[in-house]
Amino acid sequence: STLNPHPPNLMFPIIILALWGILMTSSICLRQTDLKALIAYSSVSHMGLVAAAIIVQTPWGLTGAMTLMVAHGLTSSALFALANTNYERTHTRTLLLVRGLQLAFPLMSTWWLLTNLTNMAMPPTINLLGELFIISTLFNWSTPTIIITGMGTLITATYSLYMFLMTQRGSISTQFQLLPPTHTREHLNLTLHLLPLGLLIMKPALVSGLFT
């Protein structure tokens, strides 16, 4: 009841900047050659959604912001863990040099696919729930925001697929044919990241706060 459904006019430029930041950082991801830089810019893009939802100050906005922060915290951490497993074996973060790793690490490639789908907010993860709350909140605040959030979602799907294809598909370089195998601890680490994202959709109130 203490939340203001209509933010003051002073906040309008900040919301617009947050929405514009979603498009800019997502577009930067499309031209990245460094794997960790791509993941980092992806985080900035998602936090633009969170910032806009918080400033609008509605129960749905705050619920979506809380949910997406938890969801992206696990997703981004999993992506950085995957990038580190690649770097420990190839000693490079350049996307063009680490192609075709699916041939060497088929199980790790499965983790890459699942994590990138999670980054795209595919069901049944709570990423989808958080983004739906935020997009609905912004659409209710101003109808034209659906254009920016829709474009941001489309670009997110594009660079997530780009990241997967550039690291996993194609022919592997001859210098990477003798690579050390993946370890159980790495697979356990990724399981502990992705399992909560799938299970929390059964009870999202655990992470969404008390705003609904």
Structure description:
The chain is mainly alpha-helical. The chain has one domain (10-174, 182-203). Helices cover 69% and strands 0% of the residues. It is built from 8 helices and no strands. The chain has helices spanning 12-29, 35-56, 59-90, 106-119, 126-141, 145-168, 184-199, 205-208. It is globular and about 60 Å long. It is an enzyme of class 7 (translocase).
Strand content: under 5%
Helix content: 55-70%
C-alpha geometry: globular
Query: What is the helix tally?
Result: 8
Mean pLDDT over the full residue set = 87
What's the SSE pattern? HHHHHHHH
Uncertain stretches of 5 or more adjacent residues:
none
Instruction: Tell me the distance between the termini.
Output: 11 Å
Radius of gyration: 18 Å
Report the major sheet: none
Structural class: mainly alpha
Total individual domains: 1
Count every beta strand, where a strand is a DSSP E run of 2 or more residues.
0
Catalytic activity: a ubiquinone + NADH + 5 H(+)(in) = a ubiquinol + NAD(+) + 4 H(+)(out)
Membrane topology: Multi-pass membrane protein
InterPro entries: NADH_UbQ_OxRdtase, ND/Mrp_TM
Main location: mitochondrion
